[in-house]
C-alpha cells in the first residue's frame, strides 16, 4: 500500500513538473496572449490595456476590439470559486468575474461562474506565468477563461475605482518574432568581434616574436592554449557543474551569480580599456604605491564594477534588467573568446563534438533517467519550483512559481518577445540564447582568424566560419518557429561551423596545417615577418608609406 501511494505521488509530481516547466519555457504552446481592455463606465474615454493569457482550445476570443462586447467587472478575490461557500450574495449575471487562483482546476472555476450567469472568468495569479492544462470534455465551459496578474487588477482599481467595464480580445500575431533579429545581431556580432580581437592579438604576438622579444613572454602566451586533454577536462567539468546545479541549485545559484558579477566586470574592463587605449589624449597618470596608473582606467574600472553591482541589485526587475545582463554578457563572451585560445582544429573538433553530445544527452536523454521525466538541462534552466497541484481526473492544474527569491542563472542573453507591444509589460517573456551557444562556436571562429593571421590567408577562414555561424543560427530560429518548442542551438551551430571550416581547408589544400595548427606557428610567424619586411622594403623603394 505504501509503495503504491509513493508511486502515485511520484507520478503526480512528474505530471506537475512537466506542466510547470511547460508554463515557464513554452507558454505560447499551451496559452495564448490576449488583451483586456478596461475603462470606467462613467468615463469610457479613459481606457487602459492589460495582458491576459487564455486557452483557445476551450473558448477563443475575438480578434478585434470591435467584435467583442463590454462586461462589467466583478472582483470577487480572494474567493476561489471551488465550492458553494464561494458563491457571492449578489448577482454576477452577464459580468466578467475575477477570482483567486488555487484549490481547484480552472475549468471547475469556469463551470461554476458559467452556471451563475457570468460571461467571462478572470483567474488572478500572483506573479510569474501560468498556463492551464487539460481538455473541456469533463466540463461544458462556453465562456472565455483568462489568466491575469494581481498587479493588473490592483492597477485597474487604482485607475478606475469600482465601476470597471472590460472587453476581451486576442489580436493575431505573426509567427515571426522581431526579437529573433536582435538576438541574431547580438550573437553574430559577439562572435565576430571576439574572433576578430583574438586574431589581432595573434598578430601582435607574431610581431613581438619577430622583434626578438624575450622567450619568457612567448612562453607565457602559449600557456593560454587549450590542449585536447584540457578540452576533455573542460567538458567533464561542465557536466559536473550541471549535475551539481541540478542537485544543489538553491545554494550554487548564488555562487554562479557572484562569479558572473566579478567576471563580467573584469571582461567589460578588458574590452573597454582596449578601446580607450587607442584614444591619444587623456593619459594623465596617478602615482600610487610606487606605481603609475592612468586616471581614466581607474574611472573605467569603477564604472564597470558599478554596472555589475547594479545588475546584481536589480537582477529580478524583468522590465529592464535584461538590458544590463545582455551588455555584461556580450563583454563576458567577447573576452572569453579572445582569452581562451585553442591551438588547432583538432582541439576545436573535440570540444565542439563533445559539447554537441553533451547538449543532446542532457536535453534529450536525461528525461528517461530523471524521476520527473524532464531533462536536467531544462530543470537547471528553470530553477527550483514551488508548486501546488490539483489532480482532477485527466486534468492537472499546476500553479508554479519559483521559490523566493526568484533567482535565475545569468547564463543567457534575453530579448523580450516583440510580437505585440502591450504583452511585453504584463507577462514579460523572452527569447533566450545561452552564452555557451555563443562562446563555444566563437572559439572556433577565433581559431580560424588566428590561422588566417598565421598563414596570411586574407581572413577567408574567419569570414567563412562567421557566415556559417550566422547561417546555423538562422536554421535554429527556423526550427524554433516550425517546431514551436525550445531548441538546443549547438545541434545546428556545431555542424554548420565544423563542416564549413573543413570544406574551406580542404578546398585550399591546407587541411593538414589547419588540423595541426600550432605546430606550424613558428614557421608561419617567420614567413609572416619575412613577407611584412618585403612589403615595407618595396614601399620604401617606391616612395610608399
What would you note in describing this structure?
This protein is an alpha+beta fold and 545 residues long. The chain has 2 domains: 31-169, Glucose Oxidase, domain 1; 179-540, no CATH class. It is 54% helix and 15% strand. The protein has a 7-stranded mixed beta barrel. A two-stranded antiparallel sheet has the order 8-9. α8 crosses α10 and α15 (460-483) packs antiparallel against α16. The termini are far apart. The model is unreliable at 1-29, 214-223, 385-405, 421-425, 521-526 and 532-545 (pLDDT under 50).
Query: Percent of residues in beta strands?
Result: 15-25%
Quote the average pLDDT: 78
User: In which range does the helix fraction lie?
Assistant: 40-55%
Number of helices, where a helix is a run of at least 4 consecutive DSSP H or I residues = 18
Judging from the principal axes of the Cα atoms, what is the shape? elongated
Features:
545 residues; Glucose Oxidase, domain 1; two-stranded antiparallel sheet; 13 strands; disordered C terminus
Could you write a compact summary of the structure shown?
The chain is of the alpha+beta class.
